[in-house]
Write a structure and sequence with these properties.
Length: about 260
């Protein structure tokens, strides 16, 4: 984002001229939120929608629900709305700013935020997307939990950045080879357990054995038994399940406990 060519000013814009880029980086309008804002609306403390003037048009990247609420209070008719208008932004800049918005805006879901980061071309997000799709998985921005749909985006992205591209791919390929992308195998807890195991025992464990042992286990076991294990903190509950599944009853191939 080139701040040298960026400037802004406040001015009234008719709501009919405000464009909401929902087909690219914006989220869908939430009618319940619109009615809640309208019910509590106070002009004295209302925030101006943030708008990008690009190619002679006004694109809203923060404040679409406030705009809809103002229009609702006006009987559904368009009206002038004072906006904070930015000049010099690209569409990618808008998407990244949308993903980073804070304050009184409704918190973005992980899917909505990541979709905007991808559209904006954020480097880590693009690399994570490529790594995930390389093993046959797809990011589930709406978090509906379908086969081969990775809904725990924030968890997986955090793990990707921490363990690195190679180990992340190795772990996710293991999950795919073991369970074929079943929704229960893509729960955040199971994904974390497998990725943490692969990271901790990299170069020591046998991937074929891990795939075989996991394939013989219902992935819900990792979730349920890990959640019930209160003797270990956080992610170690799920790492421990993968560790126990891998070792089984074999003393010869058992790995030492390192956590």
């Amino acid at each position: 984002m080139n701040s040298r060519n960026l400037f802004c000013r406040e001015l009234p814009i008719n709501s009919a001229d405000l464009k909401i880029p929902r087909t690219t980086y914006q989220r869908e309008l939430n009618d319940d939120r619109v009615h809640k804002i309208a019910a509590e609306f106070d002009e004295r403390i209302a925030n101006e929608p943030k708008v990008s003037c690009r190619n002679g048009r006004y694109y809203v990247f923060d404040g679409q629900h406030t705009i809809a609420a103002r229009k609702l209070l006006n009987g559904g008719k368009d009206l002038p709305i004072r906006c904070k208008v930015f000049y010099g932004l690209t569409e990618s800049d808008e998407a990244l700013l949308f993903a980073q918005q804070t304050g009184v805006s409704a918190k973005l879901t992980a899917g909505a935020k990541f979709r905007a980061l991808i559209y904006g071309g954020e480097e880590d997000a693009m690399a994570f997307l490529k790594a995930t799709e390389s093993v046959g998985l797809y990011l589930d921005y709406k978090q509906t939990r379908g086969k081969k749909r990775l809904a725990c985006i924030s968890t997986a992205f955090e793990l990707y950045k921490r363990v690195g591209d190679s180990l992340y791919r190795e772990a996710m390929q293991t999950i795919m080879d073991a369970w074929g992308g079943s929704p229960d195998s893509l729960r955040a807890e199971t994904v974390r357990g497998v990725v943490e195991f692969v990271n901790l025992y990299a170069g020591e464990y046998n991937r074929r054995r891990l795939v075989t042992r996991l394939r013989q286990t219902d992935p819900l076991v990792i979730f349920r038994e890990g959640r019930a294990m209160t003797s270990l903190p956080g992610y170690k509950r799920y790492l421990n399940q993968v560790y126990r599944i891998y070792n089984g009853s074999s003393a010869k191939t058992a790995l030492p406990m390192k956590f």
